[in-house]
Design brief:
The chain is 29% helix and 26% strand. It is α+β, with helices and mostly antiparallel strands. The protein has 2 domains: 132 residues, Rossmann fold, CATH 3.40.50; 76 residues, Immunoglobulin-like, CATH 2.60.40. The chain is globular, with a radius of gyration of 20 Å. The N and C termini lie far apart (43 Å).
Length: 225
């Protein structure tokens, strides 16, 4: 399978490994690290080099008081697998996608404790899609002044862009769902009401024409409500 991937010469590769390794009898951090780095080195032989994203495992939940599927353990996923993956990503300068935190409140989408159902898979697809598409280009003007400017005003976010730029601001949940959008006009901030949303972490994405061309640029900011 790896040789087929290399022969295909993809532009983007997403990797989700570690769940099956997260069992008391299977987890060997040193071997896992060595094998994963060798795998990444093989992918980096592709010319031109693809953009590689390491996906963190989804949480596991006990069923009938035991870890399912021969002991796949959330304790190991959270305490050992994810820290090991994070270190590998740092060592290899590889981007990572957090699937653990957006899914940890969605146990209902993982009926058997390990495998997401159709809605759970759709949720994961939204999360990955947002990471792959949203932070394409930083919104920076010719004068290197960064976009956007966000101001909290009561139960609303006011989003503005410097200069004469116009854009669309969208508030996203961690699982990739678009919650609210508003147009940002020159000199007129967009107002996105946050009333009714649970306290927690969200993302604010702003899309605009790039100042130095006609391509669409996107900027993503984490927002805590």
């Amino acid at each position: 399978m790896l040789q087929k991937v290399i022969a295909f010469k993809p532009n983007i590769v997403t990797i989700k490994l570690g769940t099956n390794d997260s069992r008391a009898d299977y987890w060997h951090a040193d071997k896992f690290t060595t094998d994963y780095k060798t795998f990444l080195d093989s992918l980096n032989t592709i010319n031109p080099k693809p953009k590689i994203y390491m996906c963190m495992p989804v949480p596991a939940w006990q069923r009938n008081g035991v870890w399912p599927f021969n002991g796949i353990s959330d304790d190991i996923i959270k305490g050992q697998t994810i820290p090991t993956l994070t270190q590998i990503a740092k060592d290899k300068s590889i981007a990572s996608i957090d699937l653990y935190n957006p899914m940890k409140t969605k146990e209902a989408l993982v009926p058997d404790g390990v495998h997401p159902n159709a809605e759970g898979l759709d949720t994961l697809a939204h999360i990955i899609y947002r990471v792959l598409t949203a932070p394409v280009v930083s919104l920076v003007s010719a004068s290197a002044r960064a976009y956007p400017e966000v101001e909290r005003q009561g139960d609303a976010l006011l989003v503005s862009l410097p200069g004469s730029s116009e854009a669309v601001a969208t508030l996203y949940a961690l699982d990739g769902r678009a919650l609210a959008s508003a147009a940002v006009h020159a000199g007129v901030p967009a107002r996105i009401t946050t009333s009714g949303y649970a306290p927690g972490r969200y993302f604010l994405a702003v899309e605009a024409n790039h100042p130095e061309g006609t391509t669409t640029a996107r900027s993503v900011k984490p927002i805590s409500l």
